[in-house]
Amino acid sequence: MFLIYSIVYTLAFIVLLPRFLFDALFNGKYAAGFKQRLGYLPAFDEKGKRVVWLHCVSVGETNAARPLAIKLKETFPEISLVVSTTTRTGQKLAKTVFADVADLVFYFPFDWKFTVRRTLHRIKPSVVLLMETEIWPNFIRESYHAGARLAIVNGRLSERSLTRYAKIRQFIKRILGYLDLALMQENGDATRLMSLGIRASKVRVTGNLKFDHFTEAAEIDLTNYFRSRFCGGDDSRPFIVAASTHEPEEKWILDAFCSSANDGPRPKPRLLLAPRHPERFDKVAALIEDFRKNTGCEWQSYSFVKRSRAQSETDKAADVVLLDSIGELRSVYPLADLVFVGGSLIKHGGHSIFEPAAAGKAIVTGPFTHNFDTAVNSFIEKRALVQLPDAPQDFQVVERLYEVFIDLLNNADKRHELGFNALNAMESGRGAVEKTIEYLQPVLDKNIVRKKHYG
Question: What is the DSSP string of 42-100?
């Protein structure tokens, strides 16, 4: 079965190769770190320490891993921590947030035996920690054979993923058999994983690491910079932050925002748009510029600035701000009066609600939040979030957004109640880092070493 997987993986790579080549010439998203993905890594000196390899995928997993990485180094100072990511955005953020705790940040290898072995030979990990159920068959098997102990941390498994994996259950069961431990977020995640064949004795429930959010000094400094640059001390105009948006969410949000701005005698709101993917920054900037010419725009005179441009006095009064940067969104949330979390008006499955909740903000999502179902449902039960109903037509999506914007802009008490409840929900969910470290103790025990199955 591993041979079949490798053949299918290789065929998929060949199909995508033109995209890699095209991308290398233009924006570099998929080609970023190509050499590292083949196993050719920068010089790395573990200084005689045991190496713990923490793999994150992208921005979400990297943010979630921050408190865990710090606690790992505090609890096990004798280890050398290395961090890998799959995406370019994750890589850039990881190099920033793990600068003081990681000895190396690099790209995760392509899942061929030869690339994985080359990387393992370079890193020589004693322990591999995979964030959020990253199942790469060749990587997991080769890591096991190289003598590394393996654990999933902050694991989650949705019903949708379970359905896919169940089609190749025997293969997945074999892969899961190489794991020493699977630390899952919720009981449902644990149950679904066990249904794929992993032994119950290897599975534990720790809660979600994202509840253990903390704010670093650098983030506070950046918040103060944004407050000075984009607010100038004027808090009279409410700020809507639209976070991690996808196409065509920006168009819908702009439409609803402009309608909201023309409704009522209160001060006109301001909007900050933060697209999820950096390769779309220019496209979204063009959309913001062009929408003022659209006959459907009810506020064609709104002003617009970009975070990437040099600071100027016009920033303080700009009606729309584009956050065309990576890793700065957490520092924006304290400025918000309400936060819309993107990827939820389309069937992407939504993005993290934890960061705006930790800032105590009123949160709005669309109907499609299957990536965070457990958390979203919990927040709804605690009156800590507003979730919009499904709307089959584009104009209905805009209407739903407009209605919730107007409701929250005109009702400060409701905004404050939502934010207060969201912050309490975050506080009540803390403790996943401590549980994770506790369960990892045997895996990280320097006296327990797995025999290598090859040199």
Answer: PP---TTPEEEEEE--SHHHHHHHHHHHHHHHHH-TTEEEEEEESSHHHHHHHHHHTTT
Q: Which residues contact 6 (CB under 8 A, 6 or more apart)?
A: 112, 113, 138
Residue 139 tokens, joined: 């990587």
Q: Cα separation of 122 and 45, whole Å?
A: 10
Q: 10 Å Cβ neighbour count for 124?
A: 15
The C-alpha torsion from 106 through 112 and 118 to 124, rounded to 10°, is: 70
**313's tokens:** 């006095």
Q: What is the pLDDT of residues 354-402, one digit of tens each?
A: 999 999 999 999 999 998 888 999 999 999 999 999 998 999 999 999 9
Q: Find all residues with CB under 8 Å of 237, minimum gap 6, and list them.
A: 267, 268, 269, 270
Query: Encoding tokens for residue 434?
Result: 């401590």
Between CA 100 and CA 106 the distance in angstroms is 15
* Residue-wise DSSP of 221-252: HHHHHHIIIIITT--SS-EEEEEEE-TTHHHH
Total residue count of the chain as it appears in this document: 455
Query: What is the average per-residue pLDDT within 339-351?
Result: 96
Confidence bin at 176 (pLDDT 50/70/90)? very high
What is d(CA 88, CA 391) in angstroms, rounded to the nearest whole number?
A: 33
User: Which amino acid, residue 108?
Assistant: F
Could you report the per-residue pLDDT of 58-109, keeping only the tens digit for each?
888 999 999 999 999 999 999 999 999 998 889 999 999 999 999 999 999 9
Angle, CA 321 vertex, CA 316 and CA 327 arms, to 5°: 110
Cβ atoms of 380 and 281 closer than 8 Å: no
Radius of gyration of the chain (CA): 23
Edge to edge, what strands does the sheet with 50-55 contain? Answer: 104-107, 79-85, 50-55, 125-131, 149-155, 181-184, 203-205
Distance (Å, whole) CA 67 – CA 142: 28
Specify burial of residue 202 (Cβ count, 10 A radius: 0-12, 13-18, 19+): middle
Reported as a pLDDT band with limits 50, 70 and 90, residue 23 is low
- Positive or negative: CA dihedral 337, 432, 133, 454: positive
User: pLDDT per residue over 297-334, tens digit each?
Assistant: 999 999 999 999 999 999 999 999 999 998 899 999 99
| DSSP string computed for 285-305 | HHHHHHHTTSTT-S-TT--EE
Cα–Cα distance between 183 and 185 in angstroms, integer?
7
Concatenating the DSSP letter of every residue in 184-207 gives ESSHHHHHHHHTTT--GGGEEE--
